[in-house]
Design brief:
The protein has about 130 residues and is mostly helical. The protein has five helices and no strands. The protein has a single domain, classed as Four Helix Bundle (Hemerythrin (Met), subunit A) (Up-down Bundle). Helix content is about 60%, strand content about 0%. Helix 1 packs antiparallel against helix 5, helix 2 packs parallel to helix 5 and helix 4 packs across helix 5. The radius of gyration is 15 Å and the shape is globular.
């Protein structure tokens, strides 16, 4: 894996860890933060996949836009569209007054993030000897 890809993955994993930890907080959980970090994790993982393929991408939080850039590389990821669309709103809207996430939204954001994370991690994982057909 390329060094810059590894950096994107590291940043994504930081967001994933933050979302996971905050979701388990029992006293005054910050569900906005869970949703935000779930979105950020998915965004950074998509950018990691694009980076690994030397594909261009801009500074965007729109996960649908990033998905469109990834689809030529990973056409079966089209089935992530609904999950990514559901996460995109958390990039900005929930960081400001007027929107508050509840536990159900945080749970859904977390589940969507986990799906995206798994797909990208599988795509970035180098094949092992067990994967080779002899």
């Amino acid at each position: 894996m390329k060094l810059l890809t590894e950096e994107w993955v590291s940043k994504a994993e930081g967001d994933f860890a933050t979302a996971e930890k905050e979701f388990t907080v029992t006293a005054n959980p910050n569900y906005d933060a869970v949703c935000f970090h779930a979105q950020q994790c998915a965004e950074k993982y998509l950018k990691a996949r694009l980076q690994e393929a030397d594909a261009r991408f801009g500074k965007t939080h729109d996960l649908s836009e990033l998905l469109e850039a990834v689809l030529p590389l990973e056409p079966d990821w089209v089935n992530l569209r609904a999950d990514l669309d559901g996460l995109t709103e958390f990039a900005v809207d929930y960081r400001y007054p007027g929107e508050l996430a509840d536990k159900q939204e945080a749970k859904a954001a977390r589940e969507r993030c986990r799906k995206v994370r798994l797909k990208v991690r599988q795509a970035l994982a180098p094949p092992t000897d067990e994967d080779q057909i002899i």
